[in-house]
Amino acid sequence: MKSVVKITVFLLFLVFSQTIRGNWEKQEAKTLAWLYDVFFLNENKGWISGSNGEFIHTEDGGKTWIRD
Q1: Distance between CA atoms of 66 and 56, rounded to whole angstroms?
Q2: Strands 46-50 and 35-40
Q3: Cβ(67)–Cβ(30) under 8 Å?
Q4: Please, are residues 46 and 58 in contact by the beta-carbon 8 Å criterion?
Q5: Which of 52, 58, 23 has its CA nearest to residue 36?
Q6: Rounded to two decimals, what is the model's pTM?
Q7: How far apart are CA 27 and CA 45, in angstroms?
Q8: Beta carbons of 31 and 67 less than 8 angstroms apart
């Protein structure tokens, strides 16, 4: 019984590890702030927060970033 649970957990791990893999590309943010966190509402609209209250946002999936 324990081996069935282990195999199930392993297979679930394989499935979910493939779904959380993202295709990240380095982008120019034109800021000297340390960038700490990123949040996307959908595939196009997102925000990044950084040091000293820096916020930048995108409305084209990260192709361009605009300082707020």
Answers
A1: 5
A2: antiparallel
A3: yes
A4: yes
A5: 52
A6: 0.60
A7: 15
A8: yes
Host H or E run for residue 38: strand 35-40
CA angle, 10 then 11 then 16, to 5° = 100
Which residues, 6+ apart, have CB-to-CB distance to 62 below 8 Å? 25, 27, 46
Q: How many CB atoms lie within 10 A of CB 57?
A: 15
Q: How far apart are CA 51 and CA 40, in angstroms?
A: 19
- Residue 9 clears pLDDT 90, i.e. is over it: no
Residue 30 token pair: 């034109």
Q: What's the pLDDT tens digit per position in 51-67?
A: 999 999 999 988 889 98
Token pair belonging to 57 = 């946002």
Give the integer Cα–Cα distance in Å for 47 and 44: 10
Classified as helix, coil or strand, 32 is: coil
